[in-house]
Amino acid sequence: MSEFEYVIVLMSFIVAFGASELLSGWGRQYLARADAKPYPLQLVASALLLGALLQTVWGYWGFRSVSWGFGSFLLALLPLLPLVGAAGIIMPPAGQSAAETDPKQHYLAVYPAVFRLLATWIALGTIAELVLVEASLHLGHAVRLVGVLLLVGLSFTPNPTIHWAGLALLAALQAAFVRMVTPALG
């Protein structure tokens, strides 16, 4: 097993935890749908989070030639922490009945933290890339900057129309970033 394979397995466990939080949250909402109507904005935001988790672990392929030590491991790990944190809070927590947790009210209570955590994920991912692979500036950095600014802006408004537009723009930015920057395996 190479150093990269060892590191990516550890990263994959953390990504799997975030994905598990999202998937189990969707399952809880589905089962409680008669008592608490799912909130579409929350579901779309959580789907984008799942995409971000998957894209991040795929994007780690770009780190395959890194000379790994504990410091570089921590630097690569750091962006996952706010991303998984956002995945852990976007859906209502387990153990609460549907009557206790209205999905819309939950989303309105957590969206500022979720969007700020996602902005932090992008910023830390940029730092990790620049330090670990000595990447040059590329168009993906402009996409990241727009993403951070959009996420910070979204964290300050409860307006659902703005959230819908912001999430649509974030999905487009994520797709553009994947096309431009995320490495192909090979």
Could you please describe the fold and organization of this structure?
The chain has 186 residues and is mainly alpha-helical. The protein has one domain (3-180). 72% of the residues lie in helices and 0% in strands. The protein has seven helices and no strands. The protein has helices spanning 3-31, 40-59, 70-77, 80-89, 103-132, 139-154, 160-180. The protein is globular, with a radius of gyration of 17 Å. The two termini are 18 Å apart. The mean pLDDT is 92.
> Taking all residues together, what is the mean pLDDT?
92
Distance between the termini: 18 Å
The rough form would be described as globular
N-to-C order of helices and strands: HHHHHHH
Low-confidence stretches: none
Which structural class do the helices and strands define? mainly alpha
Largest sheet: none
Annotation, overall tally of beta strands: 0
- Tell me the number of helical segments per DSSP (H or I, 4 or more residues long): 7
Helix content: over 70%
Provide the β-strand percentage band: under 5%
Number of domains: 1
Strand and helix map with partners:
Blueprint: H1 3-31, H2 40-59, H3 70-77, H4 80-89, H5 103-132, H6 139-154, H7 160-180
Helix pairs in contact: 1-2, 1-4, 2-4, 2-7, 4-5, 5-6, 6-7
Task: Give a summary of the structure in a few sentences.
By secondary structure, this protein is an all-alpha fold.
Descriptive terms for the model:
mainly alpha; 186 residues; globular; 72% helix; single chain
